[in-house]
Amino acid sequence: MRVTDRTVLLIAALTIAVPVIGTVIELPTDYNRSSPWTELIELGVANYTETDCARTCVAGELPRVCLFTFVMEFYAAMGTACGNCSNGVLEDCYRSQCIPADGTEREVMSINRKIPGPAIHVCKNDLIVVNVINRMAGADVTLHWHGFRQKHSQWMDGVPYVTQCPVGGTSFRYIFPAEDDGTFFYHGHVGTHRTNGHYGALVVHAPKSEEPWTENLYSYDSVNHTIVSSDWMHETAEMFFPGLPSRQPGITPTTILINGLGRYYDGEADVDLVNASIPLATFHVQKNFRYRFRIINANSHVCPFITQVQNHSLMLIATDGKPIEPVTVDSLIHYPGERYDFVLIPLVNVTERDAFWIHFRALGSCESIKLDQYGVLSYDTTDDELGILPTRSRPTVSNPLPMGIVVNDPNTTCGANASRLCVTDFRSVGYDDADEVRRILTAKPDVNLIIPFGFHSFDVDTFHEDGSYHPFMNLGGENILSAWMNNISFTFPSSPILSSYNSYKSHGGYCDKDNLPANCLGNDDNATFTPYCECTQVVVLQQNDIVQMTLIDNVGLSSLNHPIHLHGFAFYVMHIHQNLTRDQMFTVSEVEEFLSTWEFEESDEASSTNMTVPPLKDTISVPSNGFVIVRFKADNPGSWLMHCHFEWHMSVGMMMVFKVEGTVSSRPPGFPECGNFDLLDESTAAAVQPNKCINRKPKIRSSTAPNHGKMTGV
């Protein structure tokens, strides 16, 4: 095949070039969002590694090309760049390329020698271009842009073997439009890379005049008021994946980081183990103004966080990037993958240069290990002032701030307590097509999916049978678990589903609950349990189907609420069902019976322009032993992963793929391909030049006799 000049140009456009910083590149409003390569070449984007996009967004302005270069490395927290940070020299903790984390030395996976990685702040309709350069020898990477629908850029979702091949020791340029404003984030989607440091903020701002709230709701929306929370271990995640029988502390976080900063406090021993001068995340504001904050939960483990700001209430105005009617709470509980926007409301008279504690505590199964962390809210100070600590009494795990009104409490029954709010108490605002929204909420669904998820427990003998290699995590002792959805533990194919679905389907390479492989455990007449299968689960949806999906927690642990994230879509959260007096899981038949009489409740005055619209989210926490009902319109053709956002649970199979039929944007020119290589495969053999050996009859001989060191041959 002849390589045309155009192909050479397109390949050149995907090459990382010499740094030129501070450039503004504007796009025509009518550029091709599904295939912008020609415009980018003509604009000379290949000649830059960074452009300037952080700005106040103005209605009617031309969108920009927002170019970032991310270099991924194995690096060190509290390494040589940090000087005397560990000895209390605070200025050294802020040195270029220093990652202080919680003051403990450990290997990390960094982006541009930062944790979190560089924050991305752009305006709605900008075109985001991220050059990913992988310098981690022996480790493949991808980046997922969490919450982005990628409706015109399905190839850029960043899921290995679903939308792309993982990136080895090479580079990959992600290009996608910022079509929706809101709070998002990015993170690694290979193995446990997010746990080791591959995550960062991604915020799409909009002109204030285009937001659904009154313009005086808040005064400022600053890039410096984004809060990224994460759990942190003192060992690499791989040390405890898939887990060890007796090594402590096992699969559990050691501390909490806020914007990559924090102090390690051993709650069980009641001892500070690092110097008190390790910096805390500090957020600067001025009196008499209202500020919009954005909080991103980048956790990997099973612990939700509760966030409180001393002597302040939080007016929630958005969840997962979607606007809601303002709701004022005192305590916000959030799960991995969730994002919330809020406006800070002081409850006391703020004095000059006042400061308050921002307190994070881990809940659920982490309450017993007493994890907490602090940030600082500082009034009338500047961003370059370091070491600010409030003089007010510091809250602790044993003496926390008053709970007040709480949202997302895992231990509440929705609707039972006015001070314990659920996500279903939120109301969406700012939607455009009210009639279409009403149809999605009230029409009989085209597809009604009931999806339980849970764990399969292996006995040691079955797990270690010769020739068996099951996905697993070891939670200590002989506790060996694999995760599933629909009793299927997901296994990745060898080529991305988005580009190779039809080929794999013709060879029986995919499965669903009605089309299972023959070798499932328990798939026989004598089985005493539901078959447990390991295969690539793909559920096919037709374009524009109205889909109602019920997610059932069949894990059976009272302290564990699973955050389920759906790529490519936002869904309406219709109903959250939990009965705290019930100590057993809901079965599929029980849920079916509930659904046969349940209907979404519209408000009494509901009309096409005035109705109760539940919140839109892309990540929802399913209560332990409960279930959640969501709805969405399958209007985004492509292959989209759905999974638990606990890193270990996803890694051992708690995920599945939706393939939405319809026209997908053309594959970018030269897009990498991957797959199995086997010279003995029939399809490969057909392309081999015939020779005298190919038609020989094989001489096959089996033997049960031991081979005592003798050479054998054919």
From TrEMBL:
- What InterPro entries does the record tag this protein with? Cu-oxidase-like_N, Cu-oxidase_2nd, Cu-oxidase_C, Cu-oxidase_fam, Cu_oxidase_CS, Cu_oxidase_Cu_BS, Cupredoxin
Q: Which SUPFAM superfamilies match?
A: Cupredoxins (SSF49503)
Q: This chain belongs to which protein, by name? A: Oxidoreductase OpS5 isoform X1
| Keyword annotations of the record | Copper, Metal-binding, Oxidoreductase
- Provide a GO biological process annotation: iron ion transport
Occurrences of domain Plastocyanin-like (ranges): 95-208, 225-363, 528-661
State one molecular function term (GO).
Answer: copper ion binding
The signal peptide here is none
PROSITE patterns in the record: MULTICOPPER_OXIDASE1, MULTICOPPER_OXIDASE2
